[in-house]
């Protein structure tokens, strides 16, 4: 028996004598639950990948900052003492500080670029949810 006179090849849902509306609702609920679980799993996988990228970028920035700080400390003292032979210690310290300001700017720019490449939006999940919504609409009609 077809639903309210729909053409046989229209693709609309059909009710048989042994299928009740309750069974159809139950099947739809089961499908929707399974679909929801699959979408959540996809979103979780995408977000984990992006979190790893962000962690890697942050770790690199932290490592660069620590290594740069140690290098700056010892190299600064060396350069200041070397420049102290040619000028006052105050001018030597200012020159060293300017050099490290440039180094810090370069490291910050590279770290910022790395973090900007992180995409926190799960694009695949969004597209999949759009497809699921279309599927659900066809299922209801």
From TrEMBL:
One Pfam match: Phage_holin_3_6
Q: Where are the transmembrane segments?
A: 61-83, 89-109
- The highest taxon in the source lineage is Bacteria
Record keywords: Membrane, Transmembrane, Transmembrane helix
Protein name according to UniProt: Putative superfamily III holin-X
